[in-house]
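Aim 2, interim progress: modelling of the phosphoric acid mono(formamide)ester-bound target.
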Amino acid sequence: MTQHLLTLMDLGAHGLIDVLDRADELKRIRGRSDHPRPLANKSVAIILEKASARTRISFEVGIQELGGQAIVISGNELQLGKREPLQDAARVLSRYVHAVVYRTFGHDRIEKLAAFSSVPVINALTDKFHPCQVLADLMTIREHRGKDLTDLVVAWIGDGNNMAHSWILASALAGFELRLACPPNYQPSGDVVETARSLGAGQLVFTSDPLNAAHEAHVVTTDVWASMGREDESAIRRQAFAGFGVTAEHMRRAAEGAIFLHCLPAHRGEEVDAEVIDGPSSRVWDEAENRLHVQKALFDRFV
Ligand code: CP
Ligand code: NVA
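Predicted structure of the complex, ligand included:
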């Protein structure tokens, strides 16, 4: 059966660590003449139905470094589900390319594409999950404090969104504590929490107080208050998220040597203060770079 990466659950606990280990290795040997080229003579379609900087560039560069060819197609051009059904497009793409990287809105869209695709489909962000980003985040954390993730405490402050959902699954798969401080109407989905809890590993702690979440945490992380597709809610969200921005006070409450992560793009003065994201505990540029390495590791595994 074709293996897809729609959520981190598709990797499983061992697969998650294998990908991180492989990403470390690929980072170490980047640019060397003996760097593996598992995508030689292969093509990958990158379909983007939302804006993207890091995702498009890191996937294109990564595919090229693995010897393959990337074909970037905008959602406007394809009009999947409108010009033709997703299931037809999936079957056609499978005859041309060796993998599909897909960024879309509803998670059901990527599920449908994958169901009819005979080549691996990799989730490059849906409204519900962003697995590639959280892999990059975990890689960055391991670079900072060592490979063992089980004694880790991560504080998520902000929206219970696609990034929060992928963090929740990561906590259950890798077995670390995740504290979530989200405003009352912006909690993560119950079904994702249930899935994580059913694995029986990791620990999810819900709090209404961001400072409590940050207390002695090793990582403090956040994301935009209005994700792509929610921009028209920006004004109302700015009110609802008042007090949920990451400030220097949160970093002071965190453990000694704690780091700040943000998937980017960031809004300074909203979800994070400039002195935090531009300050000494920020690892956001390493985090952005690590998208490249974890995605290369995924191709190595899936394609
Ligand atoms: N973090 C991330 O996925 O960035 P882009 O939306 O720019 O790809
Ligand atoms: N939650 C954000 C992540 C962007 C990389 C969004 O979906 O827009």
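The longest strand covers residues 43-48. Strands lie at 43-48, 69-74, 99-103, 121-123, 153-157, 177-181, 203-207, 219-222, 259-262.
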